[in-house]
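B., you asked whether I could sanity-check this one before it goes into the benchmark set. Here's the sequence:
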Amino acid sequence: MSGFGHPALFAGDQQPEEPVDAQREIVDPHHHFWHSRGNGPYLLEDLWADTGSGHNVTRTVFVECRANYRETGPEELRCVGETEFVAAIASASATGAGARVSGIVAHADLRHERLDEVLHAHEEAGSGLFRGIRHAGACDPHPEVLSIPGRAPEGLYRDESFRHGLRRLGERGLTYDTWHYHHQNADFADLARSAPETTMVLDHFGTPLGVGPYAGRREEIYDDWRRDIEAIAECPNVVAKLGGLAMPDNGFGWSERATPATSDELVEQHERYYLHMLEHFGAGRCMFESNFPVDKLSVSYAAYWNAAQKIAGRLPEEDQIALFSGTAERVYRLGAAPGNG
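And here's what the prediction gave me:
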């Protein structure tokens, strides 16, 4: 099996944690594929090795990561190569015993005058799996200290052509995913208010940073993050993905250790973020996400889902169903799991 991430994770994968609840159906609404990045490829066999590590993961959603773009043709259409690449993987997943890739969130430049043509091309390439666009807004004044620096220009969320494209997604029944840093959350709230008919998905808690100039400021940043999340939650068109908080740039340090984080360590350090999101968004507007293989730098797949089950275990059953599968099914229009009717 090819691998990705810190070498210490291989030991963690060889002896994964036993699942808290091996029967709970899980839809993982956020993972990536690529042929070559970091320490190697992450393809269907790698995903299946992770989803098959003990938990009942039935379906997944791929989210764009600028992989396998076309090398020729109009610049705005090169991103369609990624959808073609993932659609082929999804087709293979439908005939195997592992989790089925059931949705694709692609990339497009929402500012482009030919946006509709790009969206149509994704629909054609997606074999019925194209669900939305991620044109991430991540931008930080200190990219040199980040292991995953954002690519967006300053002020993207305030660009009127971008906002026009965002509203166009809603008109076409498509979702909008984004990833940005904690200091951009207020701008995101304003963006959400500008497109009330578009379903918007906030990835990775709005990424509270903890490295470089943000190191040693966790409580200050948490207080700002908490207030901004409350403002975002007032926008009923926004749903939140709960995961992606173990990236190196979050500053918890697990990617530098000889062993990955345990589920108990994740709960200890992250639970307050999860509970704050749940308090203000509610389970019906939240979904757990693995963000693999990026978070694999810090934690095994089994440990992440154990942490999610430990955090959610005290909630009513209907809330747990929403968090682990229901919200993702609704937002990404996934339908019933194979074999479930």
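One thing to flag: Confidence is low (pLDDT under 50) at residues 1-14. Otherwise nothing jumped out at me.
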